[in-house]
Design goal:
- This protein is mostly beta strands and about 160 residues long.
- The protein has a single domain (about 25-155), classed as Calycin beta-barrel core domain (Lipocalin), CATH 2.40.128.20.
- About 15% of the residues lie in helices and about 55% in strands.
- It contains one helix and ten strands; from the N terminus they run αββββββββββ.
- A ten-stranded antiparallel barrel has the order 1-2-3-4-5-6-7-8-9-10.
- Residues about 5-20 have low confidence and may be disordered.
Length: about 160
């Protein structure tokens, strides 16, 4: 009888943990939510992120021209699907405007690494929250990058 009670208690605790985990699929990535900007010589790049549901954070990247006007550059999605996380990008004007999925290969509470070795460039996209108001993003061509671009975003404040 004691074994049955112990088994029941363990099963109950385990099911509570699993349900909690399923409810919180995007918790480790919520630091992305909001708008982030990076000034350039020709204007600014702005990434904006919103939580769409319990398994998707959606966003976009726009270029704000110094001369005025905006240009959408990328459609972005951060998703949980089939027990994996993906950073999905539609590079407007590239790849026939088809979405490219980068599988999240590692993540922590304030960073992630996503990879798609079949894609021409980038093959890897890395985001790291440096400070509550600063993100460092890197796009490169793989583990030992020969081609690499750094992006330093600041949280946008109205």
């Amino acid at each position: 009888m004691k074994i049955a009670v112990v088994f029941f208690v363990l099963a109950f605790l385990l099911s509570a943990f699993i349900e909690k985990k399923d409810e919180d699929k995007m918790q480790s990535f919520k630091w992305l939510i909001g708008s982030w900007t990076m000034k350039t010589a020709r204007g600014a790049i702005m990434e904006s992120w919103v939580q769409l549901n319990d398994s998707t954070i959606g966003g976009e990247s726009i270029f704000i021209k110094i001369t005025g006007g905006t240009e959408q550059r990328e459609k972005l999605r951060f998703i949980y699907s089939n027990k994996d996380y993906f950073y999905c990008v539609t590079f407007l004007g590239q790849n026939n405007n088809q979405e490219i999925k980068f599988r999240i290969t590692s993540f922590a509470d304030s960073s992630f690494v996503s990879e798609n070795r079949q894609h021409d460039f980038p093959k890897r996209i890395i985001y790291k929250l440096i400070h509550k108001d600063t993100i460092h993003a890197v796009v490169d061509d793989g583990e030992i990058p020969k081609k690499k671009f750094d992006f330093f975003y600041s949280r946008y404040k109205d």
